Amino acid sequence: MFKKILAIVMVLAMVLAFAGCGAKEDDKLVMATNAAFPPYEFKADDGSFAGIDVEIAGLIAKELGRELEIVDIDFGAIIAGVQTGKYDIGVAGLTVTDERLESVNFSTSYAKGIQSVIVKADSAYASFEDFYTEFDADGDPVGVKEGIKIGVQQDTTGDIYSSDVPKKWGFGEDNVERYKTGADAVEALKTGKVTAVIIDNEPAKSFVAANEGLKILDGSYTEEDYAIAIAKDNTELLEQVNAALKKLTDNGEIKKIVDKYIPA
After folding, report:
1. Which SS3 state, helix, strand or coil, does residue 34 take?
2. Domains in the chain, number
3. Alpha helical stretches, state H, the chain
């Protein structure tokens, strides 16, 4: 009899132990990002994660009473990882697109982004419009100049937009070179493998500041809103994140973070 009671007690202890582990995991908010996108997400000198998105996600986790855990992965794997539930949220300067909305939901926007064009400082091009041969009666491009190669970070909106046809202000698949990170694309520009790099404006400014002989062309290639990716079946988390974002926007905390990394 004593052995039976002991066995039951041990089983119950194991069940409670597993339950405790599950609760601990539930206390975490797992964020997927690609930490090569300054000033939104990057690795600090001490190896820790830093940036606008990192700090905003930290405040959201705090509002939700959860511990933020950051996982650094390839940019192109973020949406799929959130969609399957491997990660709770995707925060990586993500823009809402129709294609991405087929896989995940997005929070309300927390920041605005501008796609800029980086070229060599001695480039003959004054604007990205100079990359096209001519324009139709509606003012849309009809062709791309020979030799134009655009470098982009794979799977970003810079990739999506620039790979489109000229009529939609793209440059065509054949004229776009994809790289794993924005830094790789910039290296390709420095060595003459591409004519220009299209990337978000703030990272563009960081890359130009860190690499002599580069400049950003005047004007913006396109403008967009950043939001947080969340699995479609996790509507409760979506509501919680949106509520946290509203509170952090209303009390000025998000503006403080943005101003910290992007001085006016």
Report:
1. coil
2. 2
3. 2-26, 52-63, 78-83, 98-101, 157-162, 182-190, 201-210, 235-250, 253-261
